[in-house]
């Protein structure tokens, strides 16, 4: 089956790129142009016609990539035409009329590249991350993973485990033979090294995932303290409804920001107070759940009436900034006890000290996003496989001590399998769907 899709963005543009991949690619290009195939990897101007009527669709550039020297590893072509909806629709319609030629699924071109051995699974994921990156730090992380350092590290650890497994299996095959001391020492040293390295990778404060998914900031506080106004101000647009009526915000409202190159997701939450309204109570419950998940909490209260319930006091930990709003209405000095808490006195209405608050947020971001060349985990999938690998190596060590080598070998095989699943070295069909469905169509 040959597949095709629009690989450039939808909408009106100067140029649109339609990608085709499969064994019938050369036949399709000949049908569209009525001419022989262009020279490989040379941009060639061609008239592109409808399949059945030979009516001209557009004049554009053909790029021909014979397999296996192509992105997918198959015969592949890219057609560059003018980016109008009418041109794209006409070309798509003609391609659909060709037998055994269909529209590609999301991520199918990259999935073919993985299945044909052109890239590993980590690189496939980093390509998706690069396409969806919105900030500089996200772009840099995706490029680092694409360069293969993470895959090299995981393959190195996997090779270590395979070497240990070969020694253990030799002992199983020849039970009457004692393993030499140098082999026993190598097994112990190698397993200890793998354990230390995996623990170090796991102890990364989830920086990779924070960069990929965004730093989570939750705005919390009592009703009418200015939570929605603060969110709108930080977003530079009206994301949330602002009203003097208490309890306007009942659900969690989110917006994504680029704050000096750092990806941020800000959540405006329902006002925390005692309420008999069932819907509002559910909103408050969601607020507290979002507080637990947040990397930083902005607890906002009114300057004249700092309504500190026990719940709000419990939110003021090391990952919280107390925001005292409506300083323009302040009639007396702030309570000395409140001054001891990490706080910023602001007035959203008069745009006072907002920059100081943003500066505090940025400093918190910088501390969380310490740049490191050792960032290897960017998805929860990686973390789970590494943790399971570590568990199996620990089980192996326990069984090895009592010389239960048959069961110990199985733990090593499972540990090796989990490392392999990160880079795609084993049968990973069950996870491919979830990974490639996150791609856009045409990639």
User: Helix/strand-derived class?
Assistant: alpha/beta
Q: What is the helical fraction, as a range of percent?
A: 40-55%
Are there runs of 5+ residues with pLDDT below 50, and where? Answer: 241-250
- Share in β-strands: 15-25%
CATH class of the largest domain: Alpha Beta
| Order of helix and strand elements from N to C terminus | EEHEEEHEHHHHHHEHEEHEHEHEHHHH
Average per-residue pLDDT, rounded, comes to: 84
N- and C-termini, Cα separation: 17 Å
What form results from the Cα inertia axes? flat
Count of individual domains? 3
CATH fold-type name of the largest domain: Rossmann fold
CATH architecture level-2 label of the largest domain: 3-Layer(aba) Sandwich
**The biggest beta sheet, please?**
6 strands, mixed
What is the alpha-carbon Rg in Å? 29 Å
Q: What is the tally of beta strands? A: 12
Going by CATH, the homologous superfamily of the largest domain would be P-loop containing nucleotide triphosphate hydrolases
Q: What's the arrangement of strands in the largest beta sheet?
A: 3-4-5-2-1-6
Number of helices: 16
């Amino acid at each position: 089956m040959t597949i095709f899709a629009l690989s450039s963005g939808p909408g009106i543009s100067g140029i649109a790129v339609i990608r085709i991949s499969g064994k019938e690619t050369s036949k399709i290009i000949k049908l569209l142009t009525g001419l022989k195939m262009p020279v490989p990897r040379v941009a060639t101007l061609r008239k592109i016609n409808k399949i059945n009527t030979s009516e001209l669709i557009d004049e554009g550039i053909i790029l021909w990539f014979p397999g296996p020297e192509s992105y997918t590893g198959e015969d592949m072509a890219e057609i560059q035409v003018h980016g109008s909806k009418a041109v794209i629709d006409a070309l798509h319609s003609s391609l659909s009329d060709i037998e055994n030629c269909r529209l590609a699924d999301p991520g199918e071109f990259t999935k073919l590249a993985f299945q044909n051995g052109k890239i590993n699974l980590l690189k496939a994921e980093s390509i998706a991350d690069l396409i969806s990156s919105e900030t500089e730090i996200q772009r840099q992380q995706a490029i680092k993973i694409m360069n293969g350092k993470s895959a090299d590290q995981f393959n190195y650890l996997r090779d270590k485990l395979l070497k240990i497994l070969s020694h253990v299996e030799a002992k199983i095959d020849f039970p009457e033979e004692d393993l030499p001391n140098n082999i026993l020492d190598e097994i112990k040293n190698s397993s200890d090294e793998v354990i230390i390295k995996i623990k170090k990778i796991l102890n990364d404060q989830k920086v990779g995932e924070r960069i990929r998914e965004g730093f989570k900031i939750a705005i919390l506080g009592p009703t009418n303290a200015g939570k929605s106004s603060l969110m709108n101000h930080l977003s530079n647009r009206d994301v949330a409804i602002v009203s003097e009526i208490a309890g306007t915000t009942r659900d969690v409202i989110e917006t994504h920001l680029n704050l000096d190159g750092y990806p941020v997701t800000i959540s405006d939450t329902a006002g925390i107070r005692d309420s008999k309204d069932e819907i509002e109570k559910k909103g408050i419950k969601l607020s507290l759940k979002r507080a637990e998940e947040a990397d930083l909490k902005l607890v906002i209260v009114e300057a004249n009436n700092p309504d500190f319930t026990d719940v709000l006091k419990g939110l003021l930990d090391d990952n919280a900034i107390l925001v005292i709003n409506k300083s323009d209405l302040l009639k007396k000095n702030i309570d000395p006890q409140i001054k001891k808490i990490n706080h910023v006195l602001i007035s959203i209405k008069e745009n006072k000290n907002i920059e100081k608050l943003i500066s505090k947020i940025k400093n918190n971001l910088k501390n969380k996003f310490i740049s490191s060349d050792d960032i290897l985990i960017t998805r929860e999938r990686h973390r789970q496989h590494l943790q399971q690998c570590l568990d199996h190596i620990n089980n192996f060590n326990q069984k090895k001590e009592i010389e239960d080598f048959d069961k110990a070998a199985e733990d090593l095989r499972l540990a090796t399998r989990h490392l392999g699943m990160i880079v795609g070295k084993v049968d990973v069909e069950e996870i491919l769907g979830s990974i490639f469905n996150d791609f856009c169509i045409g990639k």
